[in-house]
Amino acid sequence: MSAVANPATVAECLRVGAGFSQGDRAWIAEQFATLDARLAGFHADATELEVSVKDREARGQKVTLECWVAGRQKIVTTSAEEDLHAALNDVRDDLRRRLNDAKTRQEPRHNKHLRDVSQPHDQVDPAEEAEGLPAADPSRADAETA
Question: Considering all CA atoms of the chain, what is the largest pairwise distance in Å, rounded to the nearest integer?
Fold first, then answer.
């Protein structure tokens, strides 16, 4: 991947949604700092992260982390961990995995195994194909299959 002029960082792209205040933003960004290496491949002005929590610090709280990267599908990760720090770590790690998976699916050219898979050829009428080939020698059928 070519170098990005203005790489995305959590500190630059993170918004706090429902259940969090702007005062929470700094420690959440600090917890998500390990995502910076993964986000660096994307342009900062084309990347957004939003974290929100429903029923904060109550039984059954739900933390949601959404990621939008231009040209890709939105990624949504959730966690129902009761501890807020554990839930934030859970959504962060899940987002990292899903970004890696999305990159692998979108950019197979860097994977030699995927490059070596033969590409389908144009549809050719089998009758036309047979005309250009020599007739098969039935006496050699066993030799070729053995």
Answer: 83
Are residues 95 and 77 in contact, defined by beta-carbon separation less than 8 angstroms? yes
Distance CA 139, CA 133 (A): 17
**8 A C-beta contact, residue 100 and residue 114:** no
Using alpha carbons, list the distances in angstroms from residue 73 to 34, 68, 103, 131: 22, 7, 11, 48
Residue-wise pLDDT tens digits, 72-108: 889 999 999 999 999 999 999 999 999 888 776 665 5
Other beta carbons within 10 angstroms of residue 73's beta carbon come to: 11
Please enumerate in sequence order all residues whose Cβ is within 8 A of that of 60, keeping only pairs 6 or more positions apart, or say none: 80
